[in-house]
Design goal:
The structure holds two protein chains of two kinds.
Chain A: H1 9-13, H2 30-36, H3 42-55, H4 66-79, H5 83-106, H6 123-129, H7 145-153, H8 157-176, H9 183-225
Chain B: H1 2-41, H2 46-53, H3 58-70, H4 76-113, H5 118-121, H6 123-143
Helix pairs in contact in B: 1-2, 1-3, 1-4, 3-4, 3-6, 4-6
Chain lengths: 230, 147
């Protein structure tokens, strides 16, 4: 093809590069990013909103039921005419389903019932069939399951978060390769931003918790070490 | 048939300018949009972004030069040769102009984040320019042999 119409050259060129886990915070703030995204065509903006409500924890309503979430995700997939976005969304939902299974099994739950709607895609049946296996029998297709299970069992929440973000980052990077200035590129950028922001928030929360822990320890020791007030 | 050959001949004479202008316009527009975007995120160096985005302009200049070298009385005998040389050069100038613009847009977007790579990032666009120059030079050589 001589020239493929790419309407978001200016927008993409105006966004700073995001280097995952190498920075304390995304190089562009949320409000500035949202301001830049006003350049999106109305249909694209609506599609991005729906994608974020399905993929990004910041935008997902935690109160909604699994079945309702799955209905919305499947409706979105049916509406997606862009193969890269559909593939990326399917892969992310599959990742999330496997992690949900790991967590449920770690909590001592049995395999979900056959009619229960709790996960996405063909992997659901395979998870149920391989519930007794350490990697659900999916280790070849999803080599990250083994380290994720070990991290989960070790109680290393931050390590697990980092591992899952790395897997999700690598997945979306693979789909984003052929897209530089089109709508897909915008979506993948926002997803990268969302992951970097989540990690930065996680880091900040962990730092705050550690600081409070140290503060408590210091205050507990304070009466014995501080001189009497005059 | 004769009318068709004459029409094709005239197409060949003007194709380097017409198609070259299309390639230059699209290439400069794409690279220019990237330059504008990069200016939103950087504090300086705007001139080099705008300068780089103008590079695909050269294609239409090559087209103009070849048009003058092809310009002559178009006849049934030379119509086919004019069409082949001018038409293919026009297509080459258009495609290289468009893709040079895309290369430049990538170079501008990348060097906005890492200014030190600006010169190296222009290399792909320079190589594309080289292909346009090949097509231009050899079109001139062949134009000399058309009656």
């Amino acid at each position: 093809m001589i020239w493929r119409g790419e309407p978001y050259v200016t927008l993409m060129a105006s966004l700073p590069a995001i280097r995952f886990l190498s920075e304390k915070a995304p190089p562009i703030g949320r409000s500035r990013l949202m301001e830049r995204l006003k350049d999106l065509a109305p249909d694209d903006a609506e599609l991005l909103r729906r994608l974020l409500e399905t993929v990004s924890w910041r935008f997902i309503d935690p109160a909604q039921e699994d079945a309702a979430f799955l209905d919305r995700a499947e409706a979105l997939l049916a509406d997606l005419t862009r193969p890269a976005l559909a593939a990326a969304l399917s892969e992310r939902l599959t990742l999330r389903t496997v992690v949900a299974a790991l967590r449920r099994r770690h909590a001592g739950e049995d395999a979900p019932g056959k009619g229960e709607r709790w996960g996405f895609g063909p992997v659901v049946a395979r998870l149920r069939a391989g519930w007794a296996l350490p990697d659900f029998g999916l280790g070849a297709a999803h080599p990250w399951i083994a380290p994720a299970r070990e991290t989960l069992e070790a109680g290393d929440a931050k390590g697990l978060e980092r591992l899952l973000l790395e897997v999700a980052w690598a997945q979306q990077a693979r789909h984003a390769e052929a897209h530089e200035f089109d709508f897909e590129a915008v979506v993948f950028y926002v997803l990268r931003w969302s992951m970097a922001d989540r990690w930065a928030q996680y880091d900040a929360d962990a730092a705050r918790a550690r600081f409070e822990e140290l503060l408590d320890a210091a205050l507990a020791a304070a009466p014995a070490t501080m001189p009497e007030a005059a | 048939m004769n009318d068709l050959m004459i029409m094709l001949g005239w197409f060949g004479v003007y194709a380097p300018v017409g198609l070259g202008a299309l390639g230059s316009a699209i290439g400069v527009a794409v690279a220019g949009q990237a330059a504008i975007g990069a200016m939103l995120e950087t504090e300086g160096g705007y001139g080099r972004f705008v300068g780089a985005s103008a590079i695909p302009s050269s294609n239409v200049i090559y087209g103009i030069v070849v048009m003058f070298s092809l310009q002559r009385a178009v006849t049934v005998e030379n119509g086919g040769a004019l069409f082949a040389v001018g038409g293919l050069l026009g297509v080459a100038l258009m495609v290289t102009g468009v893709w040079q613009g895309r290369s430049l847009a990538s170079a501008i977007a990348a060097s906005k984040n890492k200014p030190e790579i600006f010169g190296l990032a222009l290399a792909p666009a320079a190589i594309v320019e080289g292909f346009a120059v090949f097509a231009f030079v050899f079109a001139l050589v062949l134009a000399g042999g058309i009656a």
